[in-house]
Please model this.
Amino acid sequence: VIRHASSGAVRLIAEKVDCPVLNAGDGQHEHPTQALLDALTMRHALKLPIGSDLNGLKVTICGDILHSRVARSNILSLTALGADVRVCAPPALMPDEVDVMGVTPFHDFDAALKGANVVMMLRLQQERMSGQFIPSPREYRHLYGLTPERLARAKGDVLVMHPGPMNRGIEITSSVADHPVHSAITEQVEMGVAVRMACLDVLTRRARGLAGWA
Model:
């Protein structure tokens, strides 16, 4: 299991070793298990049948899209499952030509929230930034912070998600993050344990069989 600050490090190691390698996040590239647990959380919280696609589900991902490996993996996963994915960020934090990934880009958070079934917030990746990407945290909160008033623009039964760690009071208020009906953030943590256990089980099954453990 590899977690590395450099994009592509996991692939490089996988080419050098003779065993399964699990990507636990590599730089700004991808975070596959987070995308798996997020899809499972959506299915569970929205009471969708296991194994079903997410056809027609409107998912808004808002925050630091440019530096987020979570956003990249979720875009690949959710579009493959048939979801209508919207990404929202300030211009400086939106990747160039992101629309080629099959998503709809927004800079206006209020517009991106309209009719959304799921809202996934991302934190500002300060450790991966070099330069001034936002005017100030206060201005960012004003334009892109998820508040109860802003959440009202989404569907009435909207699901709120966040991969963590959260910057409470910047990208999301505590009242939204801890909402007893809309928030699925603690459920994401629970699903993360199950998904990663499943990944380890699948990837080590052959080895266990060879060793006579199966």
